UniProtKB/TrEMBL annotation, chain A:
<dbReference type="InterPro" id="IPR016169">
    <property type="entry name" value="FAD-bd_PCMH_sub2"/>
</dbReference>
<dbReference type="InterPro" id="IPR005107">
    <property type="entry name" value="CO_DH_flav_C"/>
</dbReference>
<dbReference type="InterPro" id="IPR036683">
    <property type="entry name" value="CO_DH_flav_C_dom_sf"/>
</dbReference>
<dbReference type="InterPro" id="IPR016167">
    <property type="entry name" value="FAD-bd_PCMH_sub1"/>
</dbReference>
<keyword id="KW-0274">FAD</keyword>
<dbReference type="Pfam" id="PF00941">
    <property type="entry name" value="FAD_binding_5"/>
</dbReference>
<dbReference type="InterPro" id="IPR002346">
    <property type="entry name" value="Mopterin_DH_FAD-bd"/>
</dbReference>
From TrEMBL, chain B:
<feature type="compositionally biased region" description="Basic and acidic residues">
    <location>
        <begin position="1"/>
        <end position="12"/>
    </location>
</feature>
<dbReference type="InterPro" id="IPR046867">
    <property type="entry name" value="AldOxase/xan_DH_MoCoBD2"/>
</dbReference>
<feature type="region of interest" description="Disordered">
    <location>
        <begin position="1"/>
        <end position="25"/>
    </location>
</feature>
<keyword id="KW-0560">Oxidoreductase</keyword>
<dbReference type="InterPro" id="IPR016208">
    <property type="entry name" value="Ald_Oxase/xanthine_DH-like"/>
</dbReference>
<dbReference type="Pfam" id="PF02738">
    <property type="entry name" value="MoCoBD_1"/>
</dbReference>
<dbReference type="InterPro" id="IPR036856">
    <property type="entry name" value="Ald_Oxase/Xan_DH_a/b_sf"/>
</dbReference>
UniProtKB/TrEMBL annotation, chain C:
<keyword id="KW-0001">2Fe-2S</keyword>
<keyword id="KW-0560">Oxidoreductase</keyword>
<dbReference type="InterPro" id="IPR051452">
    <property type="entry name" value="Diverse_Oxidoreductases"/>
</dbReference>
<dbReference type="Pfam" id="PF01799">
    <property type="entry name" value="Fer2_2"/>
</dbReference>
<dbReference type="InterPro" id="IPR012675">
    <property type="entry name" value="Beta-grasp_dom_sf"/>
</dbReference>
<keyword id="KW-0411">Iron-sulfur</keyword>
<dbReference type="Pfam" id="PF00111">
    <property type="entry name" value="Fer2"/>
</dbReference>
C-alpha cells in the first residue's frame, strides 16, 4: 500500500531540523531509519502532513569514546552499533541485543535512536539501555537536556521527548569486562520478542560484583529488574544464585496478554529466561 | 541419501534418458534475473487502477455510502458501489453443492445492503494511479448498522446468532458416508458398542485451526476491454475455470473472454478461486472501456483471500485390546466462513475417503456438517481435506499405540494393508492400485536411526532432562490426481476432472506442447519437456511448453489437487503417441516401406532389419512441405488428447520426526525429519525434492506456528505477517528424504502426485512428536499450533493448551494521536523512526 | 514533487517524485525494474530486497527520496557482461526457487550475506536469511544454493556440475 501524501524535508543540520520541527511539529513525523514508521504510513495508521528526515545530518551518526561513557549518535544504524568494537568492549549487552533486532536488511536502515524513541516495549534496545544506565540527550528549541533511561520511557510508545524535540545521542556508561547475554524468546525468527531478558554481570573472584538486568515486553515500557540485580550482587556466581535471583524478575512487571502468550505465561517465562541470561552472562564474563 | 542421488525405476515403455533425470529447470533463467511477468508488472496504455473499500465490520447492514468526496478526488474516474452494478456484474459461484439441499447465500462481488465478513468489498474506486485510487477510497464514507456476528464455530452450530439471518440457520449441509449403507464395510455403531465391552474405545476431539494460504505473490488482476476479446490477466491457478465462471455469470460469451495466468507466484489452493476482485475488475473495465488493474496489499490478501482448514473433528475409534481397529466414526464440523466458496464444502468431503488411510478398518462412518460464520470464506489449501483426515487418523493411531502400550509403528503394522494385498478396496470405497507401506517404513526407520533415538528418549526420560525428546510417526497416504469425471459427477461437483494436451511439431524441428494445466511454481515446463523428449526422441531443449492462456491452451482444467503430472502429464503422453501414429504412415511412405516394418526408437522411424530410417522431425518437415504425402493424410503431425483418469492416485510414505521440547519454556525445536515417500516413478528428482521440502514446511507450520485468529467481533487479529507467523529459514531444518517406488498402475508413466504429500504427512508427525515427548507428564494432546504457551499449559494444567488470545501487540499502531488518524495507543512521541 | 538523482543498476537517473513514493514503486513503476516485487506491507517478507550503497535493504521500507544521491542495485543489475552472478547460478543449480516470487529478494539477501561472511555455516545462512520469507521451497534448497555459491567463492574456480548434495556435504 501507499502512504497518504505528505511534504518532506531533509535538513542537513540539527538546527534546521529543530526549526522544521518547530514549524510543523504538531503535524509532522520524524523519520530516522523509518523501519517502523514506513509500515505505519503504508497501512495509513498515521498520516502526517510533514515528514522530517534526519538521515542527512551526519553529526547524529557514529560511536565515540567519551571517557567514562560511550556516546552513540541517535542516527547510528543497528548494523554499525552491532559491529562497533567500542560497543563490544564497553557495552557488550547492547551489542548482543542490537544483533538480534529484526533482520539484516532492517538493521542496515534502522537506527539506535529511532528504536528508543519509538518506544515499543517489545523493541530489543530499551531494556539494555535501561540496564546499562543510558542517558538520552535530547535537543530542543531551548538547548539540550539529558534524561536518564529510567525516566525516558513513559508508556506504550511514549517517551520524555516532547513535540519540538529530537533525540540526538545516547551516553552509555562503560561496562568494561562485564559479561553479557541477551536471551530472546520468539516463536519465529522475524517476530518481536514474546519476552526477552538482557543481563550483564561483573564477576570478581567468583563473586558477582555488579549486575545489570533489563526486561523486554514485560510491561508497557522496557523494564529494569532491580530486584534481580540486588539479589545477585555479592552472591557467588552459581546457578543457585541465578535461579533464586531470577524468581524476582516478575516484581513490578505487568506483562501483556496477546496471541503469543498470556500474562501468566510471560511471568513464568521471564524467570526462566532471566536465569538463562544470567548464567550465559557469567560464562561470558569468564571467557 | 537424497532425491538427487536416487535413480528411480523408469517406465519400461520409454526410451530416452530424460525421465528420472535431475534437469535444472527451464523456468529459472527468467526468475533468477527478474525477467518475469507477474500480473502486477503489466502496464497498458490508459490503464486505470482500482482500490477497494472494505468493511471493517464482520456483520453489518449498510445504511449509506457517501461517495461525493471520493469522486471529487484528484485523478478519480469512477467510484462505484453495489447499487451501481446490474446483474452483468456476475456472482461468485459454488461449483460443488455437496448435498441437494445445501444452504448457500448468494455471493455478490460487492455487498449491496449487508456485510457478512470483515474485509468484504463495499465500493470500488478507479483512478489514474494506484495512490490516487487509495486516497479516494479513504474518502468513501460508509455508514454501517452493526449486527451481531457469529465468529466461533461451536457457537455457530447452536444457531443462536445467524451469519445470514435470511437463511434461518448457519448449517449449510450435512454430508454422510456410512460403510454399512454403502456396502463397503460394517456398522460402525455396532463396532463401537462391541469394543466398549472388553476392547478399546478412543474418543478424541481435534481442532484443525484456520490457516491462510499466504502465497508470496499477492493476487493481482488486469482486465483489458479494448479489442474483440476482453483479456483478463490474473494471478490465478485456474484460468480456464475462471473464464467459464466469468462467462457463465456475466452473460459475456465465453468466446469473447481470454484469460491469461502469466507468471503466478504460488497458490497452494489459495488461487483456486473465482474472486470478487476479478469480477469487479472485469465489470469496471467493461463499464469504463479502459484497461484496469487491481493488486491487493498483503493485509487485504490475508483478510479477504480465502482461508483453509478450520474444522472440529470429533472422533471415535474402536479397537481390540491388541490394537486392531474395528471401526472409526468421524463427526466433523467445518467452517465455510461467510460464503460457500468455489469448492467450499467439498474440501472436507475430500477428506471423507481418507480417514481410513492405509488401514484395513472393518467399519467406518463419516459425517460432515458445514457451517456458515461471519468470517473470511474458506476453501482449498494445500491438501484440502486430506491433511485434516490424515492428521486425525495418524494422531489416533499414536493414541491407540499408547493405549495398547506398543510402539506407534507396531500398531500401524497391525492394521495396514500389506503390499501383497494391492489392489485393495478400502472401507471408504476407493481402490488403491499400488503401494508398499512396509518398504517405505523400513527405509524411513533406517534413515532416522529409529532405535537409537528411542534409546536416547528413554535416557532423557530416566534422567528427568528438562529438554525431552519426542518421536512422531506419520504413515500417510492420500488420494490425488483429481479426478475421474464420473466420480466427480457422482459427488455433484460441477465439472469434470480430465486434462487436455496438444503437441505441435514445428517444421524447424521444434516441438510445442500445449497443456491445460496451469503452473505457478511447479516446474511443468521442465518436467513435461522431459516426458516429451523421451516419448518423441527429441532434445529436451527443443520442447517448449505453453500454458496458462485460454487462447493458446483452449481446453484445460488447471492445476490443483496434485493433478498436473498424473492427469495432465498422461494427456501429454497420449498426444505424443498420436503424433507418432500420424507420423508413421508418412514415414513409411517416405521410406517406401510398409508401416508394419517400421519401429520407432530414439526419435527415428527405422525399417526393421535395415539401416534405413527417418527422424521424426524430418517427417514433421515433410508433412509441412506436403510435397510428397500419402493420399488422404493431412499436412501436419499435430495431435491432441484429452485424458480422463480412471481412478485417483495414491502416493504414500512414512515420515518420522524428532523434536526436543523444552519443558521449562514449552518451546519445541525440530531435531530431525525423515520422509520416505512412494510417489511412483519420478520424472525429475530435483523438482520432487523441492515439492517435498516445501510441502513439509507448510505442514510443519500448521503444527507449530500458523493460526488465523479472530477476536470476538470478527476482526482478523492475524492480519499481517507480523502476527500470522510464517516460518523463516532460521526456524526450519534440513530434511532427509528418500523414495521407495511402487509404480502407479493407472497411468502409463507410473507416476503419483507429490504436490501435497509433504503437507498432508508432516502435520501429524510433528504433533505426535510433541505429544510423545510429553507423555511422561500425562499429556495426550496439544492443540495446534503447538505454541510454547500451549505446551507449557498442557504440562502444567493438563488438557491441550487452551485457546489463543484474540489480541495482537500493536507494533505498527503507534501514532502521534493527530486528528483523523487511527490511534489505539496513548503514544504521543513525535519520533517516528524505530529499529 | 522532489527531485532525486539515483544510480540504479549502473544507470544514472533523475526524476521528480512524490515524497510518499516508496523506493520499490519508483523502481517498478518509473524505471520498469519489475524484477523487484512487493510481497507485504510490514517489511516481513523481504521480497523487495535490493542493495542501497551495497547493503541489503527492503525497498518497500525506504522512500524514493531517501535514496537521493545513493546507488541502488536490483536483481536485474547482478549479472555482469552477460554472466550470471554466482548466487543466481547457485539458485538454479540447487533448485532454490519454485514460483520465483521471493527469489529476487532472496538472491539479493544472499549476496549481501556472502559479502559479509564468505563461508557461512548452515546456521549462519539460516539466520542470515531470516528477513526473507519463502512459501514454496521450505528453505532447504535455498540453504543449499547459498552453500553452493559459497563453495564457488572459496574455490573461485569450476562453474556448474556437481550434485547439490555433494556441495552440501563438503
Amino acid at each position: 500500500m501507499i502512504p497518504a501524501p505528505f511534504d518532506y524535508v531533509a535538513p542537513t543540520t540539527l538546527e534546521e531540523a529543530l526549526t522544521a520541527l518547530s514549524e510543523h511539529g504538531d503535524v509532522a513525523k520524524i523519520i530516522a531509519g523509518g523501519q517502523s514508521l514506513l509500515p505505519v504510513l503504508r497501512m495509513r495508521l498515521n498520516a502526517p502532513e510533514w515528514v522530517i528526515d534526519l538521515g542527512r545530518i551526519e553529526t547524529l551518526r557514529g560511536v565515540r569514546d567519551d571517557g567514562d561513557a560511550l556516546v552513540i549518535g541517535a542516527m547510528t544504524p543497528h548494523s554499525v552499533v552491532a559491529a562497533d568494537p567500542l560497543v563490544a568492549e564497553h557495552a557488550a549487552l547492547l551489542a548482543r541485543a542490537t544483533a538480534t533486532v529484526a533482520d539484516e536488511q532492517v538493521r542496515h536502515r534502522g537506527t539506535f535512536g529511532g528504536a528508543l524513541a519509538h518506544a515499543d516495549p517489545a523493541g530489543d534496545l530499551g531494556a539494555p539501555a535501561r540496564a546499562l544506565g543510558a542517558q538520552l540527550v535530547i535537543a530542543g528549541p531551548g538547548g539540550t537536556r539529558t534524561v536518564e533511561a529510567d525516566d525516558f520511557f513513559r508508556g506504550l510508545f511514549e517517551t520524555a521527548i516532547t513535540e519540538d524535540e529530537i533525540l540526538t545521542e545516547v551516553r552509555i556508561p562503560k561496562h568494561p569486562g562485564w559479561g553479557a547475554h541477551y536471551e530472546k524468546f520468539v516463536r519465529v525468527a522475524h517476530q518481536w520478542p514474546i519476552v526477552a531478558v538482557g543481563a550483564s554481570v561483573k564477576v570478581e573472584g567468583g563473586t558477582i560484583a555488579g549486575a545489570a538486568v533489563g526486561l523486554t515486553n514485560m510491561g508497557s515500557t522496557p523494564l529494569r529488574a532491580r530486584a534481580v540485580e540486588a539479589a545477585l550482587v555479592g552472591q557467588a556466581a552459581t546457578e543457585e544464585a541465578c535461579r533464586a535471583a531470577a524468581e524476582k524478575a516478575v516484581e513490578g512487571a505487568e506483562p501483556p496478554s496477546d496471541l503469543n502468550g498470556d500474562a501468566d505465561y510471560r511471568r513464568h517465562l521471564v524467570t526462566v529466561l532471566t536465569r538463562r541470561a544470567l548464567l550465559a552472562a557469567i560464562a561470558d564474563a569468564g571467557a | 541419501m537424497t532425491a538427487t542421488e536416487a535413480r528411480p525405476d523408469r517406465s519400461p515403455e520409454f526410451g530416452g534418458n530424460e525421465i528420472g533425470r535431475d534437469r535444472r529447470r527451464k523456468e529459472d533463467a527468467r526468475l533468477i534475473t527478474g525477467r518475469t511477468r507477474w500480473t502486477d508488472n503489466i502496464t497498458l496504455p490508459g490503464m486505470l487502477h482500482l482500490a477497494m473499500v472494505r468493511s471493517p465490520f464482520a456483520h453489518a447492514r449498510i445504511t449509506g455510502v457517501e461517495t461525493a468526496a471520493a469522486k471529487d478526488s484528484v485523478g478519480v474516474v469512477a467510484v462505484l458501489t453495489g447499487a451501481d452494478f446490474d446483474e452483468s456484474l456476475g456472482v461468485c459461484i459454488n461449483a460443488w453443492p455437496i448435498t441437494p439441499d445445501q444452504k448457500a447465500p448468494t455471493h455478490p462481488p460487492v455487498a449491496t445492503d449487508r456485510i457478512s465478513f470483515a474485509g468484504e468489498i463495499v465500493a470500488v474506486v478507479a483512478a489514474r494511479s494506484a495512490a490516487e485510487a487509495r486516497d479516494a477510497a479513504d474518502l468513501v464514507e460508509v455508514e454501517y448498522d452493526e449486527l451481531p456476528a457469529v465468529v466461533d464455530l461451536e457457537e455457530a452450530v447452536k444457531d443462536e446468532v445467524l451469519a445470514h439471518p435470511d437463511l434461518g440457520t448457519n448449517k449449510s449441509a450435512l454430508w454422510v458416508f456410512d460403510s454399512a449403507q454403502a456396502g463397503t464395510g460394517g456398522n460402525v455403531d455396532e463396532a463401537i458398542a462391541a469394543a466398549r465391552d472388553g476392547g478399546i474405545v478412543l474418543e478424541r476431539t481435534y481442532r484443525q485451526q484456520r490457516l491462510i494460504p499466504a502465497f508470496m505473490e499477492p493476487r493481482s488482476v488486469v482486465v483489458d476491454p479494448t479489442g474483440e476479446q476482453i483479456t483478463v490477466w490474473s494471478a490465478t491457478q485456474i484460468p480456464h475455470i475462471l473464464r467459464f465462471a466469468l462467462a457463465a455469470t456475466t452473460g459475456v460469451p465465453e468466446s469473447k473472454i481470454r484469460v491469461i495466468a502469466p507468471d503466478v507466484g504460488g497458490g497452494f489452493g489459495g488461487k483456486l478461486q473465482q474472486t470478487p476482485e476479478e469480477m469487479l475488475a472485469f465489470a469496471v473495465a467493461r463499464r469504463l472501456g479502459k484497461p484496469v488493474k487491481f493488486t491487493e496489499t498483503r493485509s487485504e490478501s490475508l483478510m479477504s483471500a480465502h482461508h483453509g482448514r478450520d474444522q472440529i473433528q470429533k472422533l471415535t475409534l474402536a479397537a481390540t485390546k491388541d490394537g486392531r481397529v474395528t471401526g472409526l466414526k468421524v463427526e466433523l464440523t467445518a467452517n465455510l466462513g461467510a460464503y460457500v466458496a468455489l469448492v467450499g464444502g467439498g474440501v472436507p468431503v475430500l477428506g471423507a475417503f481418507m480417514f481410513n488411510a492405509i488401514y484395513k478398518f472393518p467399519a467406518y462412518q463419516f459425517n460432515c456438517q458445514t457451517v456458515l460464520t461471519n468470517t473470511t470464506w474458506t476453501d482449498a489449501y494445500r491438501g484440502a481435506g486430506r491433511p485434516e483426515a490424515t492428521y486425525a487418523i495418524e494422531r489416533l493411531m499414536d493414541e491407540l499405540a499408547a493405549e495398547v502400550g506398543v510402539d506407534p509403528l507396531e500398531v500401524r503394522e497391525r492394521n495396514w494393508i500389506t503390499h501383497e494385498e494391492f489392489p485393495f478396496t478400502t472401507v471408504a470405497g476407493l481402490e488403491y492400485d499400488s503401494g508398499n507401506y512396509e518398504a517405505a517404513t523400513a527405509r524411513a526407520k533406517e534413515m532416522f536411526r529409529y532405535d537409537e533415538l528411542r534409546a536416547e528418549q528413554q535416557a532423557r526420560r530416566a534422567s528427568g532432562d528438562p529438554v525431552q525428546l519426542g518421536i512422531g510417526v506419520s504413515t500417510f497416504t492420500e488420494m490425488c490426481g483429481l479426478a475421474p469425471s464420473r466420480v466427480l459427477g457422482s459427488l455433484d461437483y460441477g465439472a469434470g476432472g480430465w486434462e487436455h494436451a496438444e503437441i505441435r511439431m514445428l517444421p524447424t524441428g521444434k516441438v510445442e506442447v500445449v497443456t491445460g494445466a496451469s503452473a505457478h511454481g511447479q516446474g511443468h515446463e521442465t518436467a513435461f519437456s522431459q516426458i516429451v523428449a523421451d516419448r518423441l526422441g527429441v532434445p529436451f531443449e527443443d520442447v517448449e511448453i505453453l500454458h496458462g492462456d485460454t487462447m493458446v491452451a483452449a481446453k484445460g482444467l488447471d492445476t490443483y489437487g496434485s493433478r498436473s503430472l498424473v492427469v495432465g502429464g498422461e494427456a501429454v503422453v497420449r498426444a505424443a503417441d498420436k503424433v507418432l501414429e500420424k507420423a508413421r504412415p508418412i514415414a513409411a511412405h517416405l521410406l517406401e516401406a510398409s508401416v508394419d516394418d517400421l519401429e520407432f526408437k530414439d526419435g527415428r522411424f527405422g525399417v526393421r532389419g535395415t539401416d534405413q530410417g527417418i527422424g521424426l522431425t524430418e517427417v514433421a518437415a515433410a508433412a509441412f512441405a506436403a510435397h510428397n504425402l500419402p493420399d488422404g493424410v493431412e499436412a501436419n503431425l499435430d495431435s491432441e488428447a484429452t485424458y480422463d483418469p480412471v481412478n485417483f492416485n495414491f502416493p504414500h510414505g512414512t515420515h518420522l520426526c524428532a523434536v526436543e521440547v523444552d519443558t521449562e519454556t514449552g518451546e519445541t525445536r525440530m531435531r530431525k525429519y525423515v520422509a520416505c515417500d512412494d510417489i511412483g516413478v519420478i520424472i525429475n528428482p530435483l523438482i520432487v525434492s523441492g515439492q517435498v521440502h516445501g510441502g513439509l514446511v507448510q505442514g510443519i507450520a500448521q503444527a507449530l506456528w500458523e493460526e488465523a485468529v479472530y477476536d470476538d467481533t470478527g476482526t482478523l487479529v492475524t492480519g499481517s505477517f507480523v502476527d500470522y507467523l510464517l516460518p523463516t529459514a532460521a526456524d526450519t531444518i534440513s530434511f532427509d528424504i528418500d523414495h521407495t517406488t511402487s509404480p502407479a498402475t493407472t497411468n502409463s508413466l507410473g507416476t503419483k502426485g507429490v504436490g501435497e504429500a509433504g503437507t498432508i504427512a508432516s502435520t501429524p508427525a510433528v504433533v505426535n512428536a510433541v505429544v510423545d515427548a510429553l507423555r511422561p507428564y500425562g499429556v495426550h494432546d496439544v492443540r495446534m499450533p503447538c505454541t510454547p504457551e500451549r505446551v507449557w499449559r498442557a504440562i502444567r494444567e493438563g488438557g491441550a493448551g487452551g485457546d489463543t488470545t484474540g489480541a495482537a501487540a500493536p507494533h505498527f499502531d503507534a501514532s502521534t494521536g493527530m486528528e483523523g488518524t487511527v490511534d489505539r495507543t496513548d503514544g504521543s512521541s513525535p519520533e517516528g523512526g524505530d529499529q | 514533487m522532489t527531485r532525486i538523482n539515483v544510480t540504479v543498476d549502473g544507470m544514472k537517473v533523475a526524476d521528480d517524485v512524490e515524497p510518499r513514493m516508496l523506493l520499490v514503486h519508483y523502481l517498478r513503476e518509473r524505471l520498469g525494474k519489475t524484477g523487484t516485487v512487493v510481497g507485504c506491507d510490514t517489511s516481513n517478507c523481504g521480497a523487495c530486497t535490493v542493495h542501497l550503497d551495497g547493503q541489503s535493504v527492503k525497498s518497500c521500507n525506504v522512500l524514493a527520496v531517501q535514496a537521493d544521491g545513493h546507488e541502488v542495485t536490483t536483481v536485474e543489475g547482478l549479472a555482469q557482461d552477460g554472466h550470471l552472478h554466482r548466487v543466481q547460478e547457485a539458485f538454479r543449480e540447487c533448485h532454490g526457487l519454485q514460483c520465483g516470487f521471493c527469489t529476487p529478494g532472496m538472491i539479493m539477501a544472499s549476496v549481501d550475506l556472502l559479502g559479509r561472511n564468505p563461508h557461512p555455516s548452515e546456521e549462519e545462512i539460516r539466520e542470515g536469511l531470516e528477513g526473507n520469507l519463502c512459501r514454496c521451497t521450505g528453505y532447504h534448497n535455498i540453504v543449499r544454493a547459498v552453500q553452493f555459491a559459497s563453495g564457488h567463492l572459496a574455490a573461485a574456480v569450476t562453474a556448474g556440475g556437481g550434485a547439490t548434495e555433494e556441495v552440501a556435504q563438503a
